[in-house]
## 1
Amino acid sequence: MLELDRVGVTLRGRRILDGVSLTVAAGEVVALVGPNGSGKTTTLRCCYRQVPVDGGKIMIDGRELRTLSRRRLSQLLTASVQEPESLPGMTVRESVTAGRVPRLRLHQVLTAVDQRRVAECLTTVGLADLAERDLSRLSGGERQRVSIARALASDPRVLLLDEPTNHLDLRYQLTVLELCRELARSQGLAILMTVHDLQQAANYADRVVIIDDGRVIAEGAAGEALRPEVLDQVFGVRGRLDRGAGGSYRLELDGLAPARP
Ligand SMILES: Nc1ncnc2c1ncn2[C@@H]1O[C@H](COP(=O)(O)OP(=O)(O)OP(=O)(O)O)[C@@H](O)[C@H]1O
């Protein structure tokens, strides 16, 4: 559904991505993990043409990204950004409704189906009770959930989430991650998300892709990709990912890896 093939990006003369390749199939959740500044957000931004690519290609639903019209791209792929655009006085419902626009025809008003879909998205992220609240009066976590509901409202095939658990309390972190898995399974959505918490990435993604300094270092099932050597070399920590009796992963951290010369 989403395929990056040896993608390169240079910004202000600096090589930021250097031959990044990854795929996300329909129905799959892939976590993109890596240290600060490794190129995770830039990878997502390439997929919605926010940064120019100077090498390789990006395919979405079998078509090359650069050949897609802006409207077709917004129907196929949405990104949940941490601070959704808002106008003064805009309510939660209005913001999520704006996410529905790619599905409307020119000058078409919202139909009952659209309004129902917006209401469903609000319920999905637990915001139905706050639907008429002014966006400016929300907490960071509530705003994060608005952003996810807004991305879902266009019924995309590919969903990009940049640190979707940021600002969320523990309960909503797990709610959002479970929701991602459920959306992938039930609606065949292809989800690519950046995550800092490696244990959550291991437990909620089908695969992890590890990026460091603009290059993919390893990818695959969490237990294979997040090996102790990778934790050491990429993240600078000593530790391992253990699998508990119930099958879920636990990240055991022993401390910082010795500094390399
Ligand atoms: N517009 C820009 N111009 C120049 N350099 C940029 C630009 N945007 C990002 N960079 C640089 O590209 C590198 C990768 O940034 P990116 O935001 O993709 O990293 P990240 O892995 O998402 O980091 P974090 O975990 O801190 O969010 C960083 O060194 C950053 O400073």
Note: Residues 2-227 form a domain with the Rossmann fold fold (CATH 3.40.50.300).
## 2
Amino acid sequence: MADRLPEALGPLLRQAQARLAAVDDPALDARLIVEHFSGTTRTQAIADPNRKIDGSAIAAIADALRRRVGGEPVHRILGYREFYGLRLSLSPETLEPRPDTETLVEAMLPFVKAVAERQGECRILDLGTGTGAIALALLSAVPAAIATGIDMSAGALATATHNARQLGLAGRFTALQSDWFEKVSGRYHVIAANPPYIPSEDIGNLQDEVRNFDPRLALDGGADGLSPYRIIAAEAARFLEAESRIAVEIGHTQHNEVLEIFVAAGYLPGGAFQDLGGNDRVLVFKRTKP
Ligand SMILES: C[S@@+](CC[C@H](N)C(=O)[O-])C[C@H]1O[C@@H](n2cnc3c(N)ncnc32)[C@H](O)[C@@H]1O
């Protein structure tokens, strides 16, 4: 490896940033890596730049920088990502939750709160839960909500369960291994899904950081990217309460197709939401009759 990293926090941060010159945001990634592996904070870096970092932390930082330069996403290296203010552990079987998906949480929150207030509880089904991101964000915001997170991947469900425990939400979160609705029972006020929605043949064109590190099961939405929406639209009705909503994240070009799929299956449009980048990101649907 190149030169040794400095022991003092200020110079260490600068050197880490220099090593990451070729990545998208060297300053941010260097800070995340140094803080995580040295157990220091941003305030300490400013107030005490001469603070000495021990050798084992320096070695871990050097290794993390090598991985980052090699193309591994920074949150995969750290092993967690913040989502809706929650720290969620990642594993090779989970998608890294994205800020765009917070749009779905924001979109459903008023409905979840209203149902919880009126009925004393709100039951949520999170289809393809991954890290548990959507379900756990809604549970953390609404104490009277309970959620079932389903996924095909046992590894993803183990991570979601771990996250629920870490966040003190395990008592209200159930993980269920199921191929979409196959093993699901009961009725829900909210069915939420961020399903895989990339057309199979486009997966090869995704950024390396996505293609090489997010699991294919979390990305591949079939030939046209819409297969999971067809399944959800066809099967959701018998799992919905009379007063209920379905909320799905969509790819930014899929608004019309997904709308058509749900309307053809008998749902009414209940709202369309854009992400912070102004892209179509979430569609909400209502049942036509109880
Ligand atoms: C795009 S990821 C979303 C993960 C998480 N909900 C989020 O928003 O970060 C899609 C998830 O659906 C799961 N999945 C894919 N096919 C499935 C199927 N047939 N049945 C259940 N889950 C499936 C994947 O394992 C993955 O966790």
Note: The chain has a mean pLDDT of 96.
